[in-house]
Predict the structure.
Amino acid sequence: MFSDLYYFLSSLPLLRWGEKPPMTYADFLFKCREALGDGKSDWLTQVSLTLDEAPKTALAARWQERETFLRNVLAEIRASRRRQNAERWLRPTSLLSSGERKRIENAMSQPTTWKREEALDHLRWQYLDDLSVGYAFDKTTLEIYAMRLRLLEKQHSRQAEPGREAFAAMVAAGVEQANQPDVRITEA
């Protein structure tokens, strides 16, 4: 079924963390359909970085387990900052890793939300590197490529200018509200 993967995967551009994606995910899907034939790449439309109720592949299940662990650590960090118990936000996972927990904590110590999200995505990229060990030119390698492309698209979809504009609009609205006279209802 996937005998052409060796040549197809070899023809795809290399994806590097921090660089602009060489193509969109839609372009990638088109190339897959073109190279592999109709129906053989339809499963790639379901490749996602988010959590699914029932992962469709072994790789997706491992990704989901790791992503659940990451999100649990984030919930614990946020709860501890608010001096709350994180139990109600935690999801079941069998993954336990003090080293990975430390890496997530380090990512969350970045000075800005933008940098924290970038650091967390970089950890996700590195996890995909770990998952790729032992796979070469097979369906799992194609799935990892798809996930990396999704991560790069996510990273490069963040734009500073729209964020600045939204912030300026919120500040202007706050200033306008503060400048309005104080109207209080008095009981007669």
Summary: The radius of gyration is 22 Å. The mean pLDDT is 89. The chain is about 60% helix and 0% strand. Residues 5-161 form one domain.
